[in-house]
């Protein structure tokens, strides 16, 4: 009942919402080396929510499994030009970007299974940690005057990472200014976090001095369990500034949407999961990074 009342209030508040555009493109990597914590769901649903709020958004799929590409209904069979070509063969990012059908201003640079080879092929390359950063910068610098169908301007770039701390994740962390960490509200959640934060610190020291953990989002949150509340409290105590007030509830709709090549925002726009991601998107736009 409380959930229903809150959803109703949230729906009214979010209806017809138009988000403020950032002054310059915000590049955000969604990272956590743990699998199954909601990285991909967060990437695609936040991206769709931002785009539905009037912003121009690119999702870069850096996971060879291509889950973000699937969820956005993007063709990513083995022959499609993808992030593999961008990272390993220096193909311009603009040439692999596809428009997402669901929302006018949402775009995706897909991952194919080839990307699994990139992790190894990158090892011997010059400036191997900077490949994605270079590709994104070149694209942003040239997009405005570019021809073809791609976006002319981007407000947000969201990068979906694989569940590891290998070179694909390193490239993603070097390309971004901000990291968003999804945390599943469960017992071991904080243990992996220490390792992730230590790696982010190393990135900052050696490869990307500007990198900040700007956002932490609690996912698969079940308000009925004391454990979830306890984890949330711990996370908020450690990261009072970064942790979103919005939590993403456990919702079957969120897990069903990808099998229809849709985000939960179009699959079931009034579900609690869709509303929560829209509220999280609103928070993101209201927390600019200095
Ligand atoms: P990751 O990218 O970190 O591996 P995913 O976003 O793919 O995590 O989520 C892992 C699984 O959990 C997927 O099957 C996804 O559909 C499901 N899932 C993610 N978020 C939720 C949620 N809020 N409620 C229910 N299921 C979820
Ligand atoms: Mg994933």
Automatic annotation (TrEMBL):
The residues covered by the AAA domain are 26-212
Q: Which residues form a coiled coil?
A: none
Which Pfam family, any one, appears in the UniProt record? AAA_31
The family database entries (InterPro entries) matched by this protein are listed as: AAA_dom, DNA_Partitioning_ATPase, P-loop_NTPase
CDD domains attached to this UniProt entry? ParAB_family
Signal peptide positions are none
Spell out the PANTHER family in the cross-references: P-LOOP CONTAINING NUCLEOSIDE TRIPHOSPHATE HYDROLASE (PTHR13696), PARA FAMILY PROTEIN CT_582 (PTHR13696:SF52)
**What's the protein here called?**
ParA family protein
**Organism from which the protein derives:** Brachybacterium equifaecis
């Amino acid at each position: 009942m409380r959930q229903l009342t809150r959803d109703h209030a949230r729906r009214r508040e979010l209806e017809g919402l138009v988000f403020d555009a950032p002054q310059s493109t915000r590049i955000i990597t969604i990272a956590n080396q743990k699998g199954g914590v909601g990285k991909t769901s967060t990437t695609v649903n936040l991206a769709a929510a931002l785009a539905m709020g009037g912003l121009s958004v690119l999702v870069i799929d850096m996971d060879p499994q291509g889950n973000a590409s699937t969820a956005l209904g993007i063709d990513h069979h083995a022959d499609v030009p993808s992030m593999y070509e961008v990272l390993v063969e220096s193909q311009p990012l603009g040439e692999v970007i596809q428009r997402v059908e669901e929302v006018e201003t949402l775009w995706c640079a897909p991952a194919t299974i080839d990307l699994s080879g990139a992790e190894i092929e990158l090892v011997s390359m010059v400036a191997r940690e900077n490949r994605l950063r270079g590709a994104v910068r070149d694209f942003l610098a040239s997009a405005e005057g570019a021809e073809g169908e791609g976006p002319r301007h981007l407000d947000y770039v969201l990068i979906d990472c694989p569940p590891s701390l290998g070179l694909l994740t390193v490239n993603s962390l070097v390309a971004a200014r901000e990291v968003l960490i999804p945390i599943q509200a469960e017992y071991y959640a904080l243990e992996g976090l220490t390792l992730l934060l230590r790696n982010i610190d190393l990135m900052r020291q050696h490869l990307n001095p500007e990198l900040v953990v700007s956002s932490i989002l609690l996912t698969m949150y079940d308000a009925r369990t004391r454990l979830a509340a306890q984890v949330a409290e711990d996370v908020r105590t450690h990261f009072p500034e970064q942790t979103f007030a919005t939590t993403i509830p456990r919702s079957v709709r969120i897990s069903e949407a990808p099998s229809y090549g849709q985000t939960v925002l179009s699959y079931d726009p009034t579900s609690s999961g869709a509303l929560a991601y829209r509220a999280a998107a609103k928070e993101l736009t209201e927390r600019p990074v200095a």
